[in-house]
Protein backbone atom coordinates (compact mmCIF):
# COMPACT_ATOMS: atom_id res chain seq x y z
CA UNK A 1 0.00 0.00 0.00
CA UNK A 2 2.84 2.40 0.84
CA UNK A 3 4.51 1.95 -2.56
CA UNK A 4 1.23 2.37 -4.46
CA UNK A 5 0.38 5.53 -2.53
CA UNK A 6 3.83 7.00 -3.12
CA UNK A 7 3.49 6.61 -6.88
CA UNK A 8 0.08 8.24 -7.23
CA UNK A 9 0.05 11.47 -9.22
CA UNK A 10 0.36 14.60 -7.11
CA UNK A 11 -2.85 16.00 -8.59
CA UNK A 12 -4.66 12.82 -7.54
CA UNK A 13 -3.16 12.98 -4.05
CA UNK A 14 -4.18 16.63 -3.68
CA UNK A 15 -7.76 15.77 -4.62
CA UNK A 16 -7.91 12.85 -2.18
CA UNK A 17 -6.57 15.04 0.61
CA UNK A 18 -9.20 17.68 -0.07
CA UNK A 19 -11.97 15.08 -0.07
CA UNK A 20 -10.55 13.70 3.22
CA UNK A 21 -10.13 10.27 1.68
CA UNK A 22 -6.54 10.50 2.85
CA UNK A 23 -4.97 12.43 5.69
CA UNK A 24 -1.76 14.44 5.45
CA UNK A 25 -0.35 12.34 8.30
CA UNK A 26 -1.00 9.12 6.38
CA UNK A 27 0.60 10.53 3.26
CA UNK A 28 3.68 11.89 5.00
CA UNK A 29 4.15 8.66 6.94
CA UNK A 30 3.89 6.63 3.73
CA UNK A 31 6.69 8.69 2.18
CA UNK A 32 8.81 8.47 5.32
CA UNK A 33 8.42 4.67 5.19
CA UNK A 34 9.39 4.65 1.52
CA UNK A 35 12.44 6.81 2.24
CA UNK A 36 13.53 4.40 4.95
CA UNK A 37 13.15 1.48 2.56
CA UNK A 38 14.96 2.72 -0.58
CA UNK A 39 16.78 6.01 -0.02
CA UNK A 40 19.97 4.24 1.02
CA UNK A 41 20.20 2.78 -2.50
CA UNK A 42 19.89 6.12 -4.30
CA UNK A 43 21.05 8.72 -1.75
CA UNK A 44 18.54 11.27 -3.02
CA UNK A 45 17.31 12.81 0.26
CA UNK A 46 20.25 13.88 2.43
CA UNK A 47 18.57 15.76 5.26
CA UNK A 48 15.33 14.50 6.79
CA UNK A 49 13.04 15.84 9.51
CA UNK A 50 10.43 13.13 10.20
CA UNK A 51 9.17 14.67 13.44
CA UNK A 52 8.78 18.13 11.95
CA UNK A 53 7.02 16.79 8.86
CA UNK A 54 4.56 14.72 10.87
CA UNK A 55 3.84 17.63 13.21
CA UNK A 56 3.12 19.89 10.24
CA UNK A 57 0.95 17.16 8.69
CA UNK A 58 -1.10 17.03 11.91
CA UNK A 59 -1.57 20.80 11.74
CA UNK A 60 -2.64 20.48 8.08
CA UNK A 61 -5.25 17.87 8.99
CA UNK A 62 -6.53 20.10 11.77
CA UNK A 63 -6.86 23.06 9.39
CA UNK A 64 -8.85 20.98 6.91
CA UNK A 65 -11.17 19.79 9.69
CA UNK A 66 -12.05 23.42 10.41
CA UNK A 67 -12.25 24.85 6.89
CA UNK A 68 -12.47 23.60 3.30
CA UNK A 69 -10.56 26.41 1.54
CA UNK A 70 -7.09 24.95 2.01
CA UNK A 71 -4.27 25.96 -0.39
CA UNK A 72 -3.56 23.90 -3.54
CA UNK A 73 -0.58 21.87 -2.28
CA UNK A 74 -2.27 21.10 1.04
CA UNK A 75 -0.66 18.06 2.67
CA UNK A 76 1.78 17.17 -0.12
CA UNK A 77 5.28 16.33 1.17
CA UNK A 78 8.35 17.78 -0.53
CA UNK A 79 12.10 17.79 0.08
CA UNK A 80 13.74 21.00 -1.17
CA UNK A 81 16.89 21.21 -3.25
CA UNK A 82 19.87 21.65 -0.92
CA UNK A 83 20.74 24.99 -2.45
CA UNK A 84 17.45 26.47 -1.20
CA UNK A 85 17.55 28.36 2.09
CA UNK A 86 15.34 26.58 4.61
CA UNK A 87 14.79 28.25 7.97
CA UNK A 88 15.86 26.03 10.84
CA UNK A 89 17.07 23.25 8.53
CA UNK A 90 20.60 23.02 7.22
CA UNK A 91 21.38 24.13 3.70
CA UNK A 92 24.80 22.77 2.74
CA UNK A 93 25.05 23.53 -1.01
CA UNK A 94 26.92 20.22 -1.06
CA UNK A 95 30.01 21.97 0.32
CA UNK A 96 32.05 21.26 3.45
CA UNK A 97 32.10 25.03 3.96
CA UNK A 98 28.36 24.93 4.67
CA UNK A 99 28.02 21.43 6.12
CA UNK A 100 26.53 22.80 9.35
CA UNK A 101 24.90 25.95 7.97
CA UNK A 102 21.35 26.48 9.28
CA UNK A 103 19.68 29.55 7.71
CA UNK A 104 17.36 31.77 9.70
CA UNK A 105 15.13 32.44 6.68
CA UNK A 106 13.42 30.61 3.83
CA UNK A 107 14.11 31.64 0.29
CA UNK A 108 11.20 32.86 -1.81
CA UNK A 109 10.42 29.55 -3.50
CA UNK A 110 10.46 27.59 -0.23
CA UNK A 111 8.19 30.17 1.36
CA UNK A 112 5.76 30.07 -1.55
CA UNK A 113 5.46 26.30 -1.62
CA UNK A 114 4.96 26.05 2.14
CA UNK A 115 2.33 28.80 2.03
CA UNK A 116 0.70 26.78 -0.75
CA UNK A 117 0.37 23.89 1.72
CA UNK A 118 3.42 21.73 0.97
CA UNK A 119 4.96 19.93 3.95
CA UNK A 120 8.75 20.05 4.26
CA UNK A 121 10.35 16.60 4.50
CA UNK A 122 13.99 17.58 4.18
CA UNK A 123 16.54 18.36 1.45
CA UNK A 124 17.62 16.69 -1.81
CA UNK A 125 21.22 16.16 -2.84
CA UNK A 126 23.15 18.47 -5.20
CA UNK A 127 26.64 18.71 -6.70
CA UNK A 128 28.98 21.02 -4.80
CA UNK A 129 27.46 24.50 -5.19
CA UNK A 130 25.21 22.98 -7.88
CA UNK A 131 28.14 22.97 -10.31
CA UNK A 132 27.80 20.30 -12.99
CA UNK A 133 25.13 17.88 -14.10
CA UNK A 134 26.23 14.88 -12.04
CA UNK A 135 25.21 14.89 -8.37
CA UNK A 136 28.09 14.13 -6.03
CA UNK A 137 29.76 16.10 -3.24
CA UNK A 138 32.13 15.56 -0.28
CA UNK A 139 29.38 16.10 2.30
CA UNK A 140 26.83 13.45 1.27
CA UNK A 141 28.41 11.49 -1.56
CA UNK A 142 26.84 10.47 -4.87
CA UNK A 143 23.19 10.28 -5.83
CA UNK A 144 22.46 7.22 -7.95
CA UNK A 145 19.98 6.55 -10.70
CA UNK A 146 16.93 4.56 -9.51
CA UNK A 147 16.79 2.72 -12.86
CA UNK A 148 20.41 1.57 -12.54
CA UNK A 149 22.23 2.49 -9.34
CA UNK A 150 25.61 2.20 -11.05
CA UNK A 151 24.65 5.23 -13.18
CA UNK A 152 24.37 8.97 -12.65
CA UNK A 153 21.06 10.58 -11.76
CA UNK A 154 22.17 13.79 -13.49
CA UNK A 155 22.26 17.16 -11.82
CA UNK A 156 22.32 19.60 -10.40
CA UNK A 157 18.77 18.69 -9.37
CA UNK A 158 19.79 15.03 -9.34
CA UNK A 159 18.61 14.35 -5.82
CA UNK A 160 15.22 15.83 -6.69
CA UNK A 161 14.83 13.74 -9.84
CA UNK A 162 15.98 10.52 -8.18
CA UNK A 163 13.62 11.12 -5.26
CA UNK A 164 10.71 11.50 -7.67
CA UNK A 165 11.61 8.40 -9.64
CA UNK A 166 12.08 6.34 -6.46
CA UNK A 167 8.72 7.38 -5.00
CA UNK A 168 10.25 9.40 -2.15
CA UNK A 169 8.22 12.53 -2.90
CA UNK A 170 5.38 13.39 -5.31
CA UNK A 171 6.78 16.76 -6.46
CA UNK A 172 10.21 18.40 -6.51
CA UNK A 173 11.75 21.82 -6.97
CA UNK A 174 14.93 22.44 -8.92
CA UNK A 175 16.88 25.07 -10.79
CA UNK A 176 18.36 25.19 -14.27
CA UNK A 177 21.28 27.12 -15.76
CA UNK A 178 22.81 24.62 -18.17
CA UNK A 179 20.20 21.88 -17.92
CA UNK A 180 19.96 21.23 -14.18
CA UNK A 181 16.22 20.56 -14.31
CA UNK A 182 16.14 18.89 -17.72
CA UNK A 183 19.19 16.60 -17.60
CA UNK A 184 18.27 14.82 -14.33
CA UNK A 185 14.66 14.53 -15.48
CA UNK A 186 15.87 12.83 -18.65
CA UNK A 187 18.21 10.52 -16.73
CA UNK A 188 15.54 9.52 -14.18
CA UNK A 189 12.45 9.19 -16.44
CA UNK A 190 10.58 12.10 -14.86
CA UNK A 191 9.50 15.54 -16.09
CA UNK A 192 11.56 18.70 -15.64
CA UNK A 193 10.54 22.14 -16.84
CA UNK A 194 12.78 25.16 -17.38
CA UNK A 195 10.29 28.05 -17.46
CA UNK A 196 10.73 31.34 -19.27
CA UNK A 197 13.12 33.50 -17.20
CA UNK A 198 11.09 35.57 -14.75
CA UNK A 199 8.22 33.09 -14.62
CA UNK A 200 9.47 31.84 -11.23
CA UNK A 201 11.34 34.63 -9.42
CA UNK A 202 14.39 33.85 -7.31
CA UNK A 203 15.21 35.59 -4.04
CA UNK A 204 17.66 36.10 -2.44
CA UNK A 205 20.08 36.22 -5.37
CA UNK A 206 23.50 37.76 -5.98
CA UNK A 207 22.31 39.07 -9.36
CA UNK A 208 18.62 39.95 -9.46
CA UNK A 209 18.93 40.62 -13.21
CA UNK A 210 20.14 37.12 -14.02
CA UNK A 211 18.18 35.26 -16.71
CA UNK A 212 20.59 32.39 -17.25
CA UNK A 213 19.64 30.41 -14.12
CA UNK A 214 15.95 29.88 -13.34
CA UNK A 215 14.02 27.95 -10.67
CA UNK A 216 11.45 25.47 -11.87
CA UNK A 217 9.29 22.41 -11.15
CA UNK A 218 9.69 18.66 -11.56
CA UNK A 219 7.12 15.90 -11.40
CA UNK A 220 6.39 12.39 -12.60
CA UNK A 221 3.84 13.75 -15.08
CA UNK A 222 3.50 16.97 -17.05
CA UNK A 223 0.25 17.75 -15.24
CA UNK A 224 1.96 17.41 -11.85
CA UNK A 225 4.79 19.63 -13.07
CA UNK A 226 2.35 22.33 -14.19
CA UNK A 227 0.52 21.97 -10.87
CA UNK A 228 3.71 22.70 -8.96
CA UNK A 229 4.54 25.57 -11.32
CA UNK A 230 1.20 27.14 -10.41
CA UNK A 231 2.41 27.47 -6.82
CA UNK A 232 5.88 28.71 -7.83
CA UNK A 233 5.04 31.30 -10.47
CA UNK A 234 3.96 34.91 -10.12
CA UNK A 235 5.57 38.31 -9.61
CA UNK A 236 7.59 39.51 -6.64
CA UNK A 237 8.46 43.20 -6.23
CA UNK A 238 12.03 42.38 -5.18
CA UNK A 239 12.66 40.59 -8.48
CA UNK A 240 12.76 43.16 -11.30
CA UNK A 241 12.40 40.63 -14.14
CA UNK A 242 9.52 38.62 -12.66
CA UNK A 243 6.55 38.21 -14.99
CA UNK A 244 3.12 39.47 -13.96
CA UNK A 245 1.13 36.36 -14.89
CA UNK A 246 -0.17 34.75 -11.67
CA UNK A 247 0.67 31.15 -10.92
CA UNK A 248 -2.99 30.16 -11.06
CA UNK A 249 -2.80 30.52 -14.86
CA UNK A 250 -1.04 27.12 -14.88
CA UNK A 251 -3.62 25.37 -12.72
CA UNK A 252 -5.75 24.56 -15.77
CA UNK A 253 -6.48 21.42 -17.82
CA UNK A 254 -3.64 20.65 -20.22
CA UNK A 255 -5.67 18.63 -22.73
CA UNK A 256 -5.25 20.21 -26.14
CA UNK A 257 -5.23 18.75 -29.64
CA UNK A 258 -1.90 19.19 -31.45
CA UNK A 259 -3.29 18.83 -34.97
CA UNK A 260 -1.83 21.41 -37.30
CA UNK A 261 1.15 22.38 -35.15
CA UNK A 262 4.40 23.06 -37.02
CA UNK A 263 7.27 21.23 -35.34
CA UNK A 264 11.01 21.28 -36.03
CA UNK A 265 13.29 18.36 -35.13
CA UNK A 266 16.95 19.22 -34.46
CA UNK A 267 18.81 16.02 -33.49
CA UNK A 268 22.17 17.81 -33.11
CA UNK A 269 20.99 21.43 -32.83
CA UNK A 270 22.31 22.33 -36.24
CA UNK A 271 25.62 20.55 -35.71
CA UNK A 272 26.36 22.32 -32.42
CA UNK A 273 25.43 19.40 -30.10
CA UNK A 274 26.06 15.93 -31.58
CA UNK A 275 24.42 13.15 -29.58
CA UNK A 276 25.33 9.51 -29.00
CA UNK A 277 23.77 6.99 -31.34
CA UNK A 278 21.84 5.22 -28.56
CA UNK A 279 20.15 8.50 -27.59
CA UNK A 280 19.12 9.31 -31.16
CA UNK A 281 17.95 5.74 -31.77
CA UNK A 282 15.38 6.13 -28.99
CA UNK A 283 14.26 9.64 -29.93
CA UNK A 284 13.88 9.02 -33.64
CA UNK A 285 11.34 6.28 -32.92
CA UNK A 286 9.24 8.91 -31.14
CA UNK A 287 8.84 11.31 -34.06
CA UNK A 288 5.93 9.37 -35.62
CA UNK A 289 3.97 9.98 -32.40
CA UNK A 290 3.78 13.66 -33.30
CA UNK A 291 2.82 13.06 -36.92
CA UNK A 292 0.12 10.65 -35.71
CA UNK A 293 -1.17 13.47 -33.51
CA UNK A 294 -1.53 15.61 -36.64
CA UNK A 295 1.64 17.70 -36.43
CA UNK A 296 3.77 18.78 -39.38
CA UNK A 297 7.43 17.88 -38.75
CA UNK A 298 10.52 19.34 -40.45
CA UNK A 299 14.24 18.93 -39.91
CA UNK A 300 15.19 22.48 -38.85
CA UNK A 301 16.99 24.47 -36.16
CA UNK A 302 17.57 28.12 -35.29
CA UNK A 303 21.05 29.42 -36.09
CA UNK A 304 23.07 28.84 -32.90
CA UNK A 305 26.38 30.17 -34.19
CA UNK A 306 28.25 31.78 -31.29
CA UNK A 307 25.88 30.41 -28.64
CA UNK A 308 28.44 28.09 -27.06
CA UNK A 309 31.02 30.84 -26.46
CA UNK A 310 28.37 33.29 -25.25
CA UNK A 311 26.93 30.81 -22.74
CA UNK A 312 30.32 29.83 -21.33
CA UNK A 313 31.36 33.48 -21.01
CA UNK A 314 28.18 34.55 -19.20
CA UNK A 315 28.24 31.45 -17.03
CA UNK A 316 31.84 32.08 -15.96
CA UNK A 317 30.94 35.68 -15.13
CA UNK A 318 28.04 34.51 -12.96
CA UNK A 319 30.35 32.11 -11.09
CA UNK A 320 32.81 34.89 -10.33
CA UNK A 321 29.95 37.03 -9.00
CA UNK A 322 28.54 34.25 -6.84
CA UNK A 323 31.69 32.52 -5.58
CA UNK A 324 34.61 34.83 -6.29
CA UNK A 325 35.10 35.73 -2.63
CA UNK A 326 35.72 32.07 -1.81
CA UNK A 327 38.85 31.92 -3.94
CA UNK A 328 40.82 33.93 -1.44
CA UNK A 329 39.31 32.53 1.74
CA UNK A 330 38.62 28.87 0.94
CA UNK A 331 40.25 27.83 -2.34
CA UNK A 332 41.44 24.49 -0.94
CA UNK A 333 37.89 23.58 0.07
CA UNK A 334 36.50 24.02 -3.46
CA UNK A 335 36.50 21.32 -6.10
CA UNK A 336 38.94 21.99 -8.97
CA UNK A 337 36.25 22.44 -11.61
CA UNK A 338 34.59 25.18 -9.56
CA UNK A 339 37.92 26.95 -9.06
CA UNK A 340 38.52 26.86 -12.81
CA UNK A 341 35.09 28.35 -13.51
CA UNK A 342 35.60 31.18 -11.03
CA UNK A 343 39.05 31.92 -12.45
CA UNK A 344 37.68 31.94 -15.98
CA UNK A 345 35.11 34.49 -14.88
CA UNK A 346 37.74 36.59 -13.16
CA UNK A 347 39.90 36.63 -16.31
CA UNK A 348 37.11 37.96 -18.53
CA UNK A 349 37.52 41.39 -20.08
CA UNK A 350 34.88 43.99 -20.78
CA UNK A 351 35.19 43.11 -24.46
CA UNK A 352 34.49 39.43 -23.66
CA UNK A 353 31.29 40.34 -21.83
CA UNK A 354 30.24 42.80 -24.52
CA UNK A 355 30.66 40.19 -27.25
CA UNK A 356 28.66 37.64 -25.28
CA UNK A 357 25.86 40.13 -24.62
CA UNK A 358 25.67 41.18 -28.26
CA UNK A 359 25.72 37.55 -29.39
CA UNK A 360 22.93 36.66 -27.00
CA UNK A 361 20.81 39.52 -28.30
CA UNK A 362 21.35 38.36 -31.89
CA UNK A 363 20.52 34.77 -30.95
CA UNK A 364 17.32 35.89 -29.22
CA UNK A 365 16.11 37.76 -32.30
CA UNK A 366 16.97 34.78 -34.49
CA UNK A 367 15.01 32.53 -32.17
CA UNK A 368 11.95 34.79 -32.29
CA UNK A 369 12.14 34.70 -36.09
CA UNK A 370 12.47 30.89 -36.05
CA UNK A 371 9.35 30.55 -33.92
CA UNK A 372 7.39 32.70 -36.34
CA UNK A 373 7.64 29.65 -38.65
CA UNK A 374 7.47 26.84 -36.07
CA UNK A 375 5.35 26.30 -32.97
CA UNK A 376 7.81 24.01 -31.18
CA UNK A 377 11.36 22.73 -31.49
CA UNK A 378 12.15 19.10 -30.59
CA UNK A 379 15.68 18.05 -29.57
CA UNK A 380 17.54 15.67 -27.29
CA UNK A 381 17.64 16.74 -23.64
CA UNK A 382 21.04 15.17 -23.10
CA UNK A 383 23.60 14.10 -25.65
CA UNK A 384 24.34 10.91 -23.69
CA UNK A 385 22.46 8.26 -21.75
CA UNK A 386 23.03 8.06 -17.97
CA UNK A 387 26.75 7.43 -17.49
CA UNK A 388 28.85 5.68 -14.84
CA UNK A 389 28.22 7.25 -11.44
CA UNK A 390 31.90 6.95 -10.59
CA UNK A 391 32.86 9.38 -13.36
CA UNK A 392 32.71 13.16 -12.95
CA UNK A 393 31.42 13.42 -16.52
CA UNK A 394 31.20 11.25 -19.66
CA UNK A 395 34.52 10.49 -21.33
CA UNK A 396 33.21 10.95 -24.85
CA UNK A 397 30.19 12.26 -26.73
CA UNK A 398 29.27 11.04 -30.22
CA UNK A 399 32.69 9.39 -30.48
CA UNK A 400 34.66 12.49 -29.50
CA UNK A 401 36.59 12.74 -26.21
CA UNK A 402 35.25 15.33 -23.79
CA UNK A 403 37.61 18.06 -22.65
CA UNK A 404 35.49 19.42 -19.79
CA UNK A 405 32.44 18.51 -17.75
CA UNK A 406 30.36 20.92 -19.85
CA UNK A 407 30.93 19.29 -23.23
CA UNK A 408 28.07 16.78 -22.97
CA UNK A 409 25.51 19.36 -21.84
CA UNK A 410 25.32 21.53 -25.00
CA UNK A 411 21.92 20.22 -26.06
CA UNK A 412 20.51 21.72 -22.85
CA UNK A 413 22.66 24.81 -22.21
CA UNK A 414 22.48 26.21 -25.73
CA UNK A 415 18.72 26.39 -25.23
CA UNK A 416 19.17 28.08 -21.83
CA UNK A 417 20.88 31.00 -23.56
CA UNK A 418 17.80 31.67 -25.73
CA UNK A 419 15.52 32.57 -22.81
CA UNK A 420 12.73 30.21 -23.88
CA UNK A 421 10.71 27.56 -22.01
CA UNK A 422 11.98 23.99 -22.37
CA UNK A 423 10.48 20.73 -21.13
CA UNK A 424 12.12 17.35 -20.59
CA UNK A 425 9.59 14.55 -20.92
CA UNK A 426 10.23 10.76 -20.77
CA UNK A 427 10.72 9.36 -24.28
CA UNK A 428 11.69 5.73 -23.77
CA UNK A 429 14.64 3.55 -22.82
CA UNK A 430 17.82 2.23 -24.35
CA UNK A 431 18.06 -1.56 -24.88
CA UNK A 432 19.93 -1.63 -21.56
CA UNK A 433 16.99 -0.01 -19.73
CA UNK A 434 18.38 3.53 -19.33
CA UNK A 435 15.90 6.41 -19.57
CA UNK A 436 16.06 8.95 -22.39
CA UNK A 437 14.24 12.30 -22.39
CA UNK A 438 12.87 14.40 -25.25
CA UNK A 439 13.20 18.19 -25.09
CA UNK A 440 10.21 20.30 -26.17
CA UNK A 441 11.16 23.94 -26.68
CA UNK A 442 8.76 26.81 -27.32
CA UNK A 443 8.80 30.53 -28.11
CA UNK A 444 9.50 33.05 -25.33
CA UNK A 445 6.73 33.01 -22.69
CA UNK A 446 4.86 30.14 -24.36
CA UNK A 447 5.18 28.03 -21.21
CA UNK A 448 1.62 26.76 -21.23
CA UNK A 449 1.80 25.75 -24.91
CA UNK A 450 4.94 23.72 -24.22
CA UNK A 451 3.33 22.00 -21.24
CA UNK A 452 0.23 21.17 -23.27
CA UNK A 453 2.29 19.65 -26.07
CA UNK A 454 4.29 17.63 -23.56
CA UNK A 455 1.09 16.41 -21.94
CA UNK A 456 -0.32 15.27 -25.28
CA UNK A 457 2.88 13.40 -26.14
CA UNK A 458 3.04 11.86 -22.66
CA UNK A 459 -0.59 10.71 -22.88
CA UNK A 460 0.11 9.03 -26.22
CA UNK A 461 3.24 7.19 -25.02
CA UNK A 462 3.13 6.76 -21.22
CA UNK A 463 6.88 6.18 -21.00
CA UNK A 464 6.90 7.92 -17.63
CA UNK A 465 4.70 5.21 -16.12
CA UNK A 466 7.55 2.70 -16.15
CA UNK A 467 8.88 2.46 -12.59
CA UNK A 468 12.34 1.49 -11.39
CA UNK A 469 12.87 -1.90 -9.78
CA UNK A 470 14.33 -0.90 -6.44
CA UNK A 471 14.74 -3.52 -3.73
CA UNK A 472 13.03 -2.57 -0.45
CA UNK A 473 13.65 -3.55 3.13
From TrEMBL:
Residue ranges occupied by any Amidase domain in the UniProt entry: 26-451
Pfam family, one: Amidase
Gene Ontology terms for molecular function: catalytic activity
Gene3D superfamilies: Amidase signature (AS) domain
Descriptive protein name: Amidase
SUPFAM superfamilies the record matches: Amidase signature (AS) enzymes
Alphabetized PANTHER family for the sequence: INDOLEACETAMIDE HYDROLASE, TRANSAMIDASE
Amino acid sequence: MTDALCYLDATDLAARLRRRELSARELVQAHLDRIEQVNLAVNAIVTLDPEGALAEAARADERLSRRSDVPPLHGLPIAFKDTRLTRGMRTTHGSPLFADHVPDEDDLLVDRLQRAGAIRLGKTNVPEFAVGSHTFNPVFGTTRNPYDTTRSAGGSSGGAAAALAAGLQPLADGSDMGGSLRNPASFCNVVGFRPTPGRVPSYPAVNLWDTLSVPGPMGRTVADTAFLLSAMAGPDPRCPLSLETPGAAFRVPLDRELRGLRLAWAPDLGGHAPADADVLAVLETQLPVFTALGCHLDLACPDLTGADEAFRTLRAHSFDLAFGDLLGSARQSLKPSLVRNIEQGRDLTTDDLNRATVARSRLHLGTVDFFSRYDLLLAPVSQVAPFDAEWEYPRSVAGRPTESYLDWMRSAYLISLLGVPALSVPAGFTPGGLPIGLQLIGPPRADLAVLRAGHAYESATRHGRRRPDLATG
